[in-house]
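Checklist before submission:
- one chain only
- standard amino acids only
- sequence pasted in full

Submission:
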Amino acid sequence: MYRQRIDLPAAASGGYQALARLDSLIRRDGLVDDRLRELVKLRTSQMNGCALHLEWHSREALRLGETQQRLHHLAGWRESPLFSPSQRAALALAEAVTHLGPEGVPDAVYADAERHFGPQQLGNLILTVAVTNALNRIAVTARLQPDAPPSPPFPRTTNREAP
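Returned file contents:
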């Protein structure tokens, strides 16, 4: 069992709170569907192996009405018929941003996301992935565990229903 290394929200509260404010701003804009945002955060957390955020985002997705079946299919979304073209574009972008290859985010992935989302939605998706990656890296480095999680750092808000 891993032992928590540091309470980073307490040790670096200014920086951590800045991430919290950025996440709140993204949510408040209401430009990205809540369930899609949680799927993107969950897929990013899967890729980063962040157990704490896997727990939080799967619970939040279920609370927002996401189905258990779709959560089970998320790691294999490319092979699953359960995701819409816009959700696929968002998930592909999340994966490309999370695991940057030598050329960065491939043009085809970005163009597909751009076809499905307006500039503000696309900007918020990119910021969502960036903040999630930062928080995943904090949790993995600090060895924060889901069996005794602190309170979620960000308030839960709902802006609109999923398609």
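Reviewer check: The chain is about 65% helix and 0% strand.
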